[in-house]
Amino acid sequence: MAGKFYLIGAAVLSLNSVTNMNDLKTVIRAWLIGAGLSLTLSVTGIILFYAGFTDPSRNIVLHPIFGSLPPGNYPRIEGFFFHPAMLCNFLGVTWMFVLLSGSANWLKMRSFRLFSVGLLVVNAFTLTPGLGGIFLSSAYFFRKKLLETGHRHLGRSAMAAGILLAAAFFIAASVTLFSYDPDGTRVPLISGSISPSHRAVAWRTTFETFLQNPILGHGVGLPVARSEFIDPSGNRQYLGDAHNTYLSVLGETGLAGFFTFMSIIGFLLFGLARWRTQDALQNTVRACLLLALCDAFFYQSLTGSYEDARHLWVFFGISAAAIRLVTNQER
Fold this sequence. Notes:
By secondary structure, this protein is mainly alpha-helical. The chain has one domain. Helices cover 63% and strands 2% of the residues. The protein contains ten helices and two strands; from the N terminus they run αααααααββααα. It has a two-stranded antiparallel ribbon with strand order 1-2. The longest helix has 30 residues, at 21-50. The protein is globular, with a radius of gyration of 21 Å. The chain starts with a helix and ends with a helix. The mean pLDDT is 92.
């Protein structure tokens, strides 16, 4: 519970740090400075990996296991987060802040290009299903830009590609793509075998935990899933995490916690959706905050548990502050 109050405190601190548009620019710039440092060290870690520094105890931005992916000569980057999926979620919000800063001329073009290249390279090496959300939010953002410049067909094509890629990543997370075999990694789909992934098993068992404790849940911070499997590297793994934010909240805190948590998300979604202004900058801010929420929370929450992600609670506070700022101006 102390952890929950800590997260709420981070959101409140962010909320009270933004009282005008200049404050918003300053806070986002601070976010990007931290993200830029993380990206720089992560890119350095990728280069060092291919130079022979493959030990995660020495190359600290590497994730020590391949998870559900086949072992090979490639790095999985976690940056300074606990898992690559959490880094991917953080970079989903960061990408929208980069697009916002570039569109609002808060970043010089050179800095914007460096951020874009570094972010896309590092994000690709996280190798997680959350990448689908990046494609989806980016497709919508660029679709809007293309429609504004009269490229209607190109905008529609970009949106269709984003939706297809997002769906593909979610499906890939739902079924077993690779399985262990003493003679080498097998691909069950090639032989026509379709079985639920370890994530899908975690989703099912978490829902069973919720049904056993529907009102108040199993308990904050307690394991709610039961998913055992042998990964493609031959290691036996056990998942106690739901790997789904909605189910995780239901399993840990029941309906009481679920409706409380989702009311915060609903407030942000409703506030951003009803935001009406003729100001070009505010429209860009609204679009990027809304897309960051849809990517990092709504989409990526399908395959990961992010209700306790500190960067998301900071983002919640920034979004609430932006909503308050525009609402006060309308009044």
